[in-house]
Input
Amino acid sequence: MHCASCMAKVERGLEQLPAVAKARVNLSVRQVRVAHHPALTAPELVAALEAIGFVSQPRLEDAGPAASAVRPLLAPLAVAGFASMNVMLMSVSIWSGADGGTRDLFHWISALIGVPATAYAGRPFFASAWRALRRLHTNMDVPISIGILLATALSLYETMTHGRTAWFDGTLMLLLFLLAGRALDAMMRDRARAGVDALLRQAAPGALVLTPEGELAWTEARDLEPGMLMRVAAGERLAADGEIVAGRTSLDQSLLTGESAPVPASVGEAVHAGTLNLDAPIDVRVSATGEDTSLAEIARLMEAAGQSRSSYVRIADRAAGLYAPAVHTLALASFAGWMIAGAGLYQSTVIAIAVLIITCPCAIGLAVPVAQVVACGALMRQGVMVKDGSALERLARVDRALIDKTGSLTMGRPAPDAIALVALSQRDAGIALALASHSRHPLSRALADALAGHSPAPLTDVTETPGYGVRGVWNGRPAALRRPDSAGTIAVALDIAGEPVRLIAFSDLLRPDCRTAIDELARLGVPSSILSGDNARSVAEVARAIGLTGQASASPRDKTEAIVRLQNGGHSVLMVGDGLNDGPALAAADASIAPGTASDAGRQAADIVFLGDSLSALPRSLRTARRTMRVVRENFALAVGYNVLAVPLAIFGYVTPLIAAVAMATSSILVITNSLRLVRAAR
Output
């Protein structure tokens, strides 16, 4: 499966079976999910797909990633490119005046290169066309294959009969452009598929399970069952959902909640797969495994959101359905018309071949991907990576932006309050630095970085209690950098025996250019608001600072539902987020952007990732996307204008197959040249 026509054919064919309720194709992973009566077996479904024209095999849920569709195209693409360059050198010599025996020699050399190269490079199209024809169907590859084979056969005939014209160069150029477009399309789909795979890799591959006999045994995640007792050491991720039955620790739940600060957890509290245990070992009673975990639910939401079909795909679906019959009808009508007019079999065949080649939709096919590739390159030079070229089309349409707080509007890295640090004496700063330097806790590391200019005080008997802080002895007096007894925000307490406790608060700094970027989005017609999983207080602080409205304590499902509500209201939504909890929202939004500091899954789920700290990447991406779509519309106008002019000329016999291939290539070059205007679009 490689196009919208294939998707429609598979879904329509399967849903015609009486035992099938629903069939849904995922083109990114080239899989079809079928809801059917239990009486219908997998071999019967495979046979049904075979009858439709697609070879298939059942796939297990825990099977590895699907193979890339790019790799099989690389060798044919390289062969087509190498052969077309060499054959074109022969053609230039013939166009320069080579005649007689010299022309025959160049034709034979072209045939020796062109025939095997065409046979090899054309295999993806020939195989697809043959599978369709065997079942009395047709697809876009049928007219392409017929045109290439007829042009090659006629060129060989011309070579053997000392004719003046051969079209090996035209067929190879045609294959080169077609394979390049198909490889670009496959690359973009591979990138989209990597998102869900990265998400599922966040869960641990297994866990140490405490057996009833009191022994510990390593158990793979797929073999875990509800009721088992797993022991999770500090620094390990959980392999399943469950409830803590022994131990006390703090957890990094940023993948699930977006909250960057460690969360204390003790007996009786629920924990989830993918969560990182930070401080101390805990025993967890497993409650959900595999597909039943919260992590798997998020992955399903991302996959479901990725299956939504844009208007662009629906247009491509209809165009794919019309292309093959329209081209066949035009070529057959041209052949019949010229035969009736008395042009003879040879001339009528040449004209029919020219019609088949000149109608090749290369320019239309390149109109979008080339503009996207050039624009993506321009953004990349500005530190913005576009993972899915079609995202520019969707980003250009957005009229609302929802932005996560922690890690998106803010840096996602807690920093100690500058006023609290200035209030510390040199002595106290040295003690705090010495204590913080003994811990790998995120708050300790941030405090040590902030006090790096001070001299650490000499300490003895330094110990760290996970979840409680670092303690030591300074000049015979106990000192501690510990969890405060009470605090309304993230903070640590510097406690020196005999002195008042000093509270050092932490805050998450806003990204550079935050307010400027939000204002520029508004000027571009995209008002923004905050959609965060953090608590109401921290969201309100940031909302006041930058003048936005905000929704706090939003779960992954809440975020997705908020986006769907806006979409149902006629809005096109941009989601900006960084955590695993933002994954479903990033996938459900019309376009999505994540910072480079986001989690692996967050970066994979987003369409666009910006490097660096500045939030100016948001308006820059939006401006570039809108300019790209203007160029795309111009490219479509060029491509349609080419067909309006060239196709009638071919039908009326003014175009040979070589000229048809050159015209087709020229139209493609025009589209590429126009797209190159986007080289500086991101400045």
